[in-house]
Every structure is written in C-alpha cells, then in structure tokens.
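Entry for zinc ion complex. Fields follow.
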Amino acid sequence: MDKLTRIKQLVGQLNQYNYQYYVMDQPIVSDKEYDVLYDELVALEKETNILLPDSPTLRVGGEPLKNFASHRHTAPLWSLDKAKTEEELLTWDARVKRLLGENQVPLEYVIEHKFDGLTINLTYEGGELVQAATRGNGAVGESILPQVKTIRSLPLSIEFEGKMEVQGEGLMKLSVLEAYNKKALDPLKNARNAAAGALRNLDPKVTATRKLDAFCYNIGYSEGTSFATHMEMIDFLRKNKFPVNQYIKLCSSITEVIAEIQQIKDKAKDLDFLTDGLVIKINDLRVREQLGYTQKFPRWAIAFKFEAQEVTTELRDVLWQVGRTGKLTPSAVLEPVDIGGVTVSRATLNNWEDIQRKKVKKGCRVWLRRSNDVIPEIMGAIEEECEGAKEVEKPEYCPACGSEVIEKGAHIFCPNTLSCKPQMVSAIVHYSSRDAMDIEGFSEKTAEQLYETLGIKDIADLYQLSYENLISLERFGDKKAKNLLQAIEKSKDCRLDAFVYALGIPNVGRKTATDLANYFKSLEKIMEAQYEELITLPDVGGIVAASIVDFFQDEKILGSIQRLLDKGLHPKYQGEEKEESIFTEKTVVVTGTLKNYSRKEIKELLEKLGAKITSSVSKNTDYVLAGEEAGSKLDKAQEIINAGVETNLRILTEEEFETMIK
Ligand SMILES: NC(=O)c1ccc[n+]([C@@H]2O[C@H](COP(=O)([O-])OP(=O)(O)OC[C@H]3O[C@@H](n4cnc5c(N)ncnc54)[C@H](O)[C@@H]3O)[C@@H](O)[C@H]2O)c1
Ligand SMILES: [Zn+2]
C-alpha cells in the first residue's frame, strides 16, 4: 500500500474511533490500540509532509453534540503532547530549552496526575458558577451546567468576584463505580466513559445517580488577577475551595522530574480514581507564554503516559470450575494479551448473572481491566464486535461429577458435596492447611489419592485412616505414612479458631474465625449464634452473619461436625493471645493523626501488646501517643508533666513508639 493510501485509511479509522470516544462516549478500541495507530499517522505525516485537512493530529477532541447548547470558551482548551519513555521526556525538555534560547532562567516543573475523565470548563462571574461546558473541539463545547452542578465537590459560589474560567476533570471514583456496578442492570465498563456519559446525559437526574467527583487543575482565564506561577494559581484554587488533588510536586530539574516519576509510577494503581499518567508542566507562566502552542498542544506541558491497565481482547471460551463449596465459577479463556506489562490469558467473570449483565459471548471482543495486580476482570463486551459470537451456555450438570446443578441467587452449585472430586479435594486441602488444622503432608496430590483410591468422602473419614491404607498408596513409604497419621492424630487437640476456619464456612476467613472464637469462646455457642448477635461483631456484616447461620443449619454439615467430634476432635478456646511487652497493662491514649497506622490499626496493635486504651488523659495515664495535629489531649498531657505531680506519664511520638516496639 502506498503511503498516501495508508494515511487516508488511518485518518478515516481514527476519526471513526474519535467519534465513538468523544461523541458517543462508547469507545470500540482501547486507548493503547488507538495510540498505536495515532503514532503511526504522526510518523507518516512527518515523513511525507502530507497533512489531510481532517487529520486528527490537527484537532482537539470531537465535535459538540447538537442536543446541547453550544458554548464558546473564552480561553481555548487543549490536548496534550505525550511521552512514554524518559528519552521522550528529555527530548521535550531539550526542545523547550532550545525554543527559549540563550538567556533563560532555570526552569521549574510541576507534576500532577493525569486524571482520566471528561474535561470540564467552569465559568464564574460575580462569585457564582454561571456556566459549565465540555471541551468539545477546544474552541466550542457543550453547555452542561445542570449536569455539572450535580458534582457536590464543585463550589457553586466562590469568594473571587471577577470573571474566571476554571478547568478540571469530571470523574467517577473507582469505588463508586464498583458499588454502582454491583447493582446496575447495565454495568459500566470503564470509569472514564461512565463520567463522560453521565455528564453528557441530557437528564441531570441520571448524572446525579453516578455520584461524580472532580479535580480542578487550571485557570484558563481570570479577570483582574494574574499569577506568576502554576503553584500560585493552584493555591488560589485551593483558597477558593475548588477540589484540587492533594498530589502536586514541584521539581527544579528534569532529572528530578524523572526520579519522581520512578517513585510514584507504581502507586497510581492504588488511587481511587482513574489516571492514565502524569502531566508535567512548566511552572513559570511567563515562560509558558513565550513557548506558546502548536495546533493542538501547549508546548509547555507534556503527558507522561503509563502502560495501559485496560485493553481489549477476544473471549475464546468460558470454563466452569468447581470450588470447595461446590460453587461453579466461570473462568474466561482469552486470546493472550499484554496488560500493564504482563501477558494474560485468563480472567474472572464472577458468575452466571455477571456474564448476562455484561453481555459477553464466546468470540466477542471484551474490555479487560487489571487493578492492584489481582486477576484481571472482564468489564463488558464491545457489542459492535460480537458478530458470529456464541452464547455462553449455562451449565446444567457439574463439569466434574455430572450431577445436576442447582441455583442459589446469582450462583450455581454442584449439590454433590459427598462425591464431587474437586469439592472434596479442596475441602481436604483447606482443612489441613497451616492456618486451619495444620496437618502437614496434605498436598493436593495426596488429597486426590485419598479421594480416588481410599474413597474418602467426608473429612471425618480422615480420622479413620490406617497405616495399611496409606502404605498401599503410590509414593507412600513407611515414614511418610507414619508422619501423616501422627499429624492427623495431633490435630484432634486443636484450637477453636483454627477449627472454625477449617470448617470452611463461606465468607469466613482466618480473621473472622478468630473473632468468632474470641467472642463466643466455644464451638456450641458459635453454632447456636443468632444473626442479630453476629452482626454486632466489629467486622461481621450481614452477608457474613447470614453465611454463618445458614452453614450451621445444614443437616449434612451438622452431621459431619458431629462425626468429627465423635472421632475425638476437641477444639479448645485458648484465650486471646497477648504479647508480653513494655505496654502490657499500661494505659495509653492515642491522639492526632499517625503516619503508619489508622485509628483501628493502632488500637488493635496496642491491644495485642496488652495495653489498655482510654480516651482521656489523666495523671494515671502511662503514655500519650501523639501523631500529627494532636490537639487538646497533648496539651493536657504536657500540663500534667509540667505541673510536677507524681506520674509515670510520657508523651511519645510515632517514631519513638516504633523504636520501643522493635
Ligand atoms: N479509545 C479510543 O477510541 C480513543 C479515541 C480518542 C482518544 N483516545 C485517547 O485519548 C487520548 C487523547 O485524548 P485527549 O486529547 O482527549 O486527551 P489527552 O490525553 O491529550 O490529554 C489532554 C487532557 O488531559 C486532561 N487532564 C487530566 N489531568 C490533567 C492535568 N493535571 N492537567 C492538565 N490536563 C489534564 C485534560 O482534560 C485535557 O483535556 C489518546 O491518546 C487516546 O489514548 C482514545
Ligand atoms: Zn460436582
């Protein structure tokens, strides 16, 4: 293909993607796929000097929708040039310095998050928010004032009275998106499009249901004030109570910028809002004026893009796997794809209902998102690319044992708890795991042998195994058999919390098992616990409480537990574990904000160290642990010490505390 043809093809394709992304808020390719084509176009245009008039490299964003009134911005809005590597960043910096020429001042740079939402431009006049608009094509956007007013963090009135345009990004917090998707009939695939789609919805009531947020980062125009630097401008925004993200870093060289990027790059995944990189800007606004703009970007700023955490790929198949509780979970088989530097070929689809809601079919292209290094999740299908795709069939029979399955809520179960192999094998492995009964020597392989060769169909059967049984198994010698028998015997004398965990109650992890043991102190009491009482425990919510109650109402389970007890199992409550420490029996007051502990964490740690925690300071207090911005309690402690009365009271900083417990 000759280059002109390819250029025409790319322009056509990218304009189509732009339309889907900017106008419809329904992208059909990932940003990564878009960027690859865009970069190819930029390179070809440079090489051939051919620039088609409708090339996306000449234009900002997309055209405004006719349904909204259009709004002409006083100061135009721009796109951002981007760098993906340190070299590209250095090239940008060199270009800036070259443009500034000889007698330039040393440059300062600010780094901010690059929020991935919808650009909003807010107009204030006489201290009131009078207009809000999308970026549109940079010169003209859509007027979306009622929609923007649903964002509670944006001020409707401010102190400053001149005319001013404030730019920011409207977004949906990731936790809000997750909560929304749990209930939504039509789950949202991505936080950016969720925010963009909500703000460009004609009905502000719909916008309000999405509970959007915003961060402001620029003043495009302001009457009667001027700022020397970006930092000054940001201060002004903060003073006028605009939502400004707390992260902003001032650097005095490009080397410092690069070091900072290295520092915070990996932390971006943990933020509660979507970002697609960082923005680096020259701090001095007069220098910005000198540098000016290209057709599309400011020359004084650049986006440093991170590796995408969202990609698209093909869903090839869905396999159903049977877990310990008999639940069938769908596991997606994908065409292998690189996501954030890792190649993945499997992903989670939570359950049958999830597959329906997300409208995914075998052969569809799907959106895949990776967060916090867990297994990536399929967010939804690209409906335009599901042609010829086949429905995922709802399993009628267990893939492992062939039993007819049953449905409970959104989930599908194999009811054959007695002879469905994966259920029994994983139940044995869980029961004997270190945090549970700690029976050494139970690999998955061994559990399979017991199931297949010895016909173990119930955990209680483990206590019936004989030396002859075990020695008859493949890869079992005298020593291995004896050790295993001994470990099984030893487990009869077990701790209550370990036993409760070993039972494998759905939604009850090790921590909850310990809490239950500490609270109820005996197996009988836990088995009889009522829902109302369970939910009074600190970390037990409705779902966990209901699982516990249901579990102990199941006849089969009660039978199993009884058989275990008949075999001589004796779960004992051992009392709460407390470490002997300098804090044992000491009275401690915590005040102010600690850097390394939340209130709950420090309370738990101190309790574990044996301290008594109280809330008011007196001369009988032993320690006041004072974090930042400690107030009246710290003053009171100081007073007591200064008064010279007889007291053991000591004030500790967080650092001192940490050295003491080392
Ligand atoms: N998937 C698709 O189909 C598709 C289509 C078009 C564009 N895109 C994506 O969008 C990118 C280009 O889009 P663009 O021009 O809208 O955006 P951009 O990536 O060029 O960035 C400019 C925007 O960044 C935002 N921003 C966020 N935080 C900021 C901060 N701290 N300071 C300044 N600005 C900040 C602003 O809203 C500004 O408008 C492409 O690289 C591509 O990844 C994807
Ligand atoms: Zn089964």
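NOTE: Residues 322, 398, 400-401, 403, 414, 416, 420 surround zinc ion (ligand 2) (CB under 6 Å).
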